[in-house]
Amino acid sequence: MGQRKAPKDGDRKVGRRALLIGGTVAAAGSAVLARDELARLWWRVPGVEKPRKEGEVDYAGARWVAASDANWRMADRPDDYGIDMVIIHVTQGSFDSAVKVFQDPEHGAAAHYIVRKDGHVTQMIRELDVAYHAGNRDYNERSVGIEHEGFVDRPQDLTDEMYAASARLTARICARYDIPVDREHIIGHVEVPGTDHTDPGEHWDWDRYMKLVREAARTATPA
């Protein structure tokens, strides 16, 4: 996540985006682009929006705490944007401070999940929605973001409980969206193109983490 305010990824409100794309389509005469955009936007028409239950989580072990709706964008993933990636973050702060900033509409960023040092998992944004967590619009649209409580220069923050809980969560996400369990599809924030973040940092044990994810994936189900 980082200590400073993270920038939004350039998302516009639907009406503005639709108007801009509509103008481009008209000018270029591109029916293909128009169909693609309509496929992504049709469900946002009043009365068509998918029903949602307040407080519903995607991961059975998670507790729901809502992020500010200024820090994510409503979507219908994977129907409108395919999900093929999990991005690993470190909060650069406490669990409580991460929750607080993700609830702050001025912060401009939030992840889908936060994993606490004791292994507790909190979900703040639904997986079907686009969280502003990667600092890259394309990566935001195609990924699920998982924050981990702690600091990148404090290896003691990366506890056994955190690794195990996060690995189970990532394995379940991979099973749900048929994401390969490898380092091309499970990446760190530092690996996102255009980012200036360094998390999860040099102390994050990727070999250990991927082994745990693979072990959890053997029994993980999409539900």
Automatic annotation (TrEMBL):
Gene3D superfamilies: Peptidoglycan recognition protein-like
Single GO MF descriptor: N-acetylmuramoyl-L-alanine amidase activity
Ranges that cross the membrane: none
InterPro entries (UniProt xref): Amidase/PGRP_sf, Amidase_domain, NAMLAA_amidase_2
Protein known as: N-acetylmuramoyl-L-alanine amidase
Boundaries of every N-acetylmuramoyl-L-alanine amidase domain copy: 72-201
Catalytic activity: Hydrolyzes the link between N-acetylmuramoyl residues and L-amino acid residues in certain cell-wall glycopeptides
